[in-house]
Amino acid sequence: MTRQDAPADRPEAAAPAGDSPERAGEFDPALAAAQEALVRAMAAGAPVPDGFDEAAVRAAADAIVRKRAGEVARAWPVLAASYGTDWPRVFAAWAAGRPTRGSVRDAWDFARAHRAELPPEAAFDLALAEARWAYDGQRAPRRRRAAVRRVPGGVAVQLLGRMRVLGGRTRR
Questions:
Q1: Alpha helices in 7-151 (DSSP H)
Q2: With contact defined as beta carbons under 8 Å apart, do 109 and 129 qualify?
């Protein structure tokens, strides 16, 4: 039975469970605060709010981080592939407690945090991305008009969207 099918002489049947017809559509600040605390616990590593099953919330949080790892792998495949089967575990350890900023920015922030240990292909991708885009880690990336950046094995020169790598290093 849908709300439209509810008998007119039974108003309680027309409202969702737990709602009275008088409260339908009202903003409930306590509910909003509880929902916000729950989302923060699942997506940003905040403490589990009172009244929620901690094991279930942590299981959901783990699933969200695994999903993020997959999204980052699709956004920046060379980065994820460079970690092989360890990718989900390594990304999850880094992402725990960090709210997502989108898969591209998550990948970029992860790559910057692990710059010293990146394999050559991933370091090359990071260097090219930093030549093409201006990204300060806070605001959304912006396309650069021109840039020169060191890349493993050479120098990347970017001018008005065209990229050249000098020094013999090219992508395999």
A1: 11-14, 29-43, 54-75, 77-81, 87-95, 103-113, 120-132
A2: no
Looking at mean pLDDT, say which of 16-25, 40-49, 89-98 comes out highest.
89-98
Instruction: Say which residues have a Cβ less than 8 Å from residue 127's Cβ, sequence separation at least 6.
Output: 149, 150, 151, 152, 156
Give the torsion through C-alpha atoms of 31, 35, 41, 43, to 10 deg: -170
Phi and psi at residue 32, to the nearest 5°: -60, -40
Please give the model's pTM, rounded to 2 decimal places: 0.70
Q: Which of 50, 84, 87 is nearest to 68 (CA)?
A: 87
Domain boundaries in the chain?
Answer: 52-118, 123-172
Which pair of tokens denotes residue 63? Answer: 């699933």
Task: Kindly report the number of other CB atoms within 10 A of residue 152's CB atom.
Answer: 16
pLDDT at position 2 over 50: no
Q: With helix as H, strand as E and coil as C, how does 131-163 read?
A: HHEECCCCCCCEECCEEEEEECCEEEEEECCEE
Q: How many CB atoms lie within 10 A of CB 7?
A: 9
**What's the burial of 162, exposed, middle or buried (CB within 10 Å: 0-12/13-18/19+)?**
exposed
Quick one: pLDDT band at residue 93, thresholds 50, 70, 90?
A: very high
